[in-house]
Request: fold
Amino acid sequence: MQYINSKEVIKSTDKSGSETNDCSVRAFTTALDVDYDSAHSYLKETFKREDKKGCKKMNYTAKKLEGETQKIDDVEFDITVLPEDKVTNTYKLHGEVIARKKTVKSFIKDFAEGIYLVLVSGHVFTVKNGLMIDNVGEEWRPTRKVESVFELKVKNVLEQSEFEFARFC
Reply:
């Protein structure tokens, strides 16, 4: 399992230095490569996140946002909440088929490409193309159960790439 500390990716700001319970802000920041303060403002406005109190009802709000293009800085993206069958594994136990929540390690193995916000009990972090981006110490907890997952699909990256290519031709 590949891991990187989110503090290595996020530029420090006055707001990031004074915040606590900001895993949701860090997750959006690292997933979309946007400014911490912009992600903070987005979550405060869109997800009703209160300073230093974390983000409540993330799953509920994300489901309401499906189908509506979101924007942080110049990055446009869509949020899709993965269905239950994508975040569970099935096992056969004594002839009976049982569905259990995937572990973080199992999710990363199965979803090696794409950008995801992975919600575990009381916490959220980024999985980006198989790379886990999270707080220090969390890399040693690969057996945490996945509660929910949001897939983020960036919309304007290809358009920017085509523009850059055309500009140089």
Summary: The longest strand covers residues 75-81.
